From TrEMBL:
Probably binds two magnesium or manganese ions per subunit. The active site is at Y112, D152 (proton donor/acceptor), H270 (proton acceptor). Its cofactor is Mg(2+); Mn(2+). One of its GO terms (biological process) is DNA repair. Belongs to the DNA repair enzymes AP/ExoA family. The record marks N154 as: Transition state stabilizer. InterPro entries: AP_endonuc_1, Endo/exonu/phosph_ase_sf, Endo/exonuclease/phosphatase, ExoIII-like. The record marks H270 as: Interaction with DNA substrate. This is 3'-5' exonuclease. The record marks D240 as: Important for catalytic activity. Residues 6-270 form the Endonuclease/exonuclease/phosphatase domain. It comes from Aurantimicrobium minutum. Mg(2+) binds at N9, E37, D152, N154, D269, H270.
Length: 279
């Protein structure tokens, strides 16, 4: 059975629908839709998406901020929203759900990692979140061999993931200390890994489905600033991921970055990333 999973940071779901997100969604035959930066109520989501979708939504503690959701054609068996220690507020940033697909359990996570800002509390929170992710990924794979973390992870893994990487090595999103987590996430399972910051750790063996599909080429980028000519010049960042367990990654096909045809037809500063999983 083929399951089509799409993820997109909508940058406010109400605005995205006003700008044309519904037209994209009506054409893509998506089975599970992961949203980040929802910035709206569950009632808003239900009204915008309609009754044919089963909606799970974890809003942020601060109204009008963050918010993640999973919408699916068939309802989830169970969902979870906690990540990390009890005193760590991840509301609106991490939502897990288990779906029964034939005789398999598919776990999908919609996540929105902090954008961060160097030398501020925002960056401290981002590192806390990445550390909690590092601890959670092996638990997800132990729960089911078919696990998938999708969303805006706000880190470019390698130099291929940012058009102007040389100008961003000291900026949040491409800091060596952030990228080191991704080296561990996607390093060979159980093997020692050295990050670009010189730190060492153990590989978790997860697979970047986008890089698996595209190969070692620049991009394909998933985010462009609204400012200047970034979109027209394709001066983007690839920060929206399908991060899968090896068993699930081996079943992936038809990876697509649904880039808008033109600047004025964009409905978010991010683009949807869509993959079929042949379960």
């Amino acid at each position: 059975m083929s399951v089509r999973i799409a993820t997109v940071n909508v940058n406010g779901v109400r605005a995205a629908f006003r700008k044309g997100m519904d037209q994209w969604l009506s054409q893509r035959n998506v089975d599970i839709l992961a949203l980040q930066e929802v910035r709206a109520s569950t009632e808003d989501l239900e009204e915008l998406l309609g009754p044919e979708w089963n909606i799970l939504h974890d809003a942020a503690t601060a109204k009008g901020r963050a918010g993640v959701a999973l919408a699916s054609r068939s309802s989830a068996e169970i969902h979870r929203v906690s990540l990390g220690a009890d005193d760590f507020d991840t509301a609106g940033r991490w939502l897990e759900a288990d779906y029964k697909i034939g005789d398999k359990i598919l776990t999908v996570v919609s996540t929105y990692v902090h954008s961060g800002e160097v030398d501020t509390p925002k960056q401290v929170e981002k590192f806390k979140f990445l550390k909690a992710m590092q601890e959670r990924l092996p638990e997800l794979e132990a729960h089911t061999p078919y696990a998938l973390v999708v969303g805006d992870l706000n880190v470019g893994h390698t130099e291929l993931d940012i058009k102007n990487w040389k100008g961003n090595v000291k900026r949040a999103g491409f800091l060596p200390e952030e990228r080191a987590y991704f080296y561990r996430f996607m390093g060979a399972k159980g093997e020692p890994v050295t990050g670009p910051d010189g730190s060492t750790g153990t590989g978790l063996g997860w697979v970047d489905v986008g890089r698996q599909a595209a190969g070692d080429v620049p991009g394909p980028y998933t985010w462009w600033s609204w400012r200047g000519q970034a979109f027209d010049n394709d001066a983007g960042w690839r920060i929206d991921y399908h991060l899968a367990t090896p068993a699930l990654a081996s079943l992936a096909s038809n990876y697509s970055v649904d880039r808008a045809d033109s600047y004025d037809t964009r409905w978010s500063d991010h683009t949807p990333v869509v993959v079929d999983y042949n379960l």
